[in-house]
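Input record (one chain):
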Amino acid sequence: MHNKQGFLPPGARRVLGWGAAAAAAMLASPAALAFEDRDVGVYVEAGQAPHDSGDTTVLSAGALFPWTPRQSVRAGALSFYWDVFASQWRAPVGSLRREYTQIGVIGTWRLRFDQGRSPWFVEGGVGATVMDHVYDTPSRDFSTAFQFTEVLGAGYSFGAHGQHELSLRLQHFSNAGIRKPNPGENFVRLRYAVRF
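The corresponding structure, as predicted from the sequence alone:
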């Protein structure tokens, strides 16, 4: 049941709680010496789209492919990478849960602070996805299996060479009005990535 006292639904508060615990663990680890953002990486990610009728959960795995060298900008260092992923959504349908398989690609820009020396970064991206069938729940009825996606995130790199990353992300899916209805779906997601 939705908590009318708080700003965030219970599911979103749980994901944010996981992020806070992970952030505390990261801050306790030694700071990385270099943050190049030029290496290929892989990741796992989990999240929720909270609804009164039941949360949709998502598990994802993906690969990160840097595209251009890092560029200096006034606020820090800007880089770009391709995020190629596969996801499994589990959504409520009455007393049962239905699964949806999704694949997608996102072009993502990352800004690392302090001319690229900071372990902290923010990023944003846009991309496209397709599901094995049309998403249909008591709270959301999509009309297409194809969806655009936008993501905003903030994260922290850690490890001896900055090869590990943890980030909290907000991700939106919708078909941009190609067909109605187009209610969209919003996830809060927690990602762990490692670069090689």
